[in-house]
Design goal:
This protein is an alpha+beta fold and 336 residues long. The protein has two domains: 225 residues, ApbE-like domains (T-fold, Roll), CATH 3.10.520.10; 85 residues, Orthogonal Bundle (T-fold), CATH 1.10.3980. It has nine helices and 16 strands. The longest helix is centred in the first third of the chain and has 22 residues.
Amino acid sequence: MNKRTKKEVLVILFLLFFVPYFSHAHQLKHLGDETKVTRHISLMSTRVEFSIVTQKQLVANKAIDEAIAEIKRIVSVMSEWEPDSLISRVNQNAHKRPVVITNELYQLLLAAQDISASTQGKFDITFASAGQLWDFRKGIIPSKKAIEQAIAPIDYRHLKLDAKGPTAYIDHPETKVGLGGIAKGYAVDRAADIIRQHGFSEFSVNAGGDLYVEGQHKNSLWRIGIQNPRASDKLIALLPIANAAVATSGDYERFFIKDGVRYSHILDPDTGHPARKCQSVTVLAPKTFMADALATGVFVLGPDQGIKLINNLPGTEAVVIDASGKIYVSEGLPEL
């Protein structure tokens, strides 16, 4: 049995021996002599869940309050759907002249460009012009001409960043920046920072599948289930995790089927069409914004190039399920 096949089997066998634990109710949960403070709220068009293992209920709730406020602040700065946000001002004015931005936004845009380069442009924060063409609720396929016009301005290199200021400039008149593929993960990271600053060492923050987990649960690693892309009530594998982030991109999240063909919301920036090489990609990374963006990029790249990329990124792992259902596991995951 070769190494890759062995890993595939071992990941599935891992499922037979461990059961994941997560609670989503807004109430205290008693775990033996532990107390778990949890809360969920709708933010960033998704369900955001906070869970802190502690007996300090008042402090934990204060930490969660501050984490929620921080997420709302990030939305006000980085959402292209907020007309007065800083990223909206970039989209409105940066074609004419460089726009002064905050160091926070500069750093995230710079990180996004780095991830775009490492994924050969398959993760691209300028893809919105193509994404807006597709209506996955009505199942409408755009015309070939419309797609060709929409992908023309897509290229992360049209965004020019300057550390002096810092500023952002866009050198194509129709290019727009959208941070939907990375800002949610960044918001999770900032929420985790705030909870950690309050002295907590065992907690999780989950924003619609963009998850950060801190500490070890009962002296062992947390185990995160990976959904079977073709059977939502089943898990295909479990991953051990602590002090790290997990994000999954899948073709089962938003899609329609027409004439027997599945059209998912994850688009290839080069073609403007849904990517078809994978069913799902789960990435483990030190930061949630990295896992968030890389999951999308690897999904579009496909299993071979995607796993090769992940194997070259320190502290980053992945489980890729290709279009046929075959499982690929990066080299750094433990032999189970």
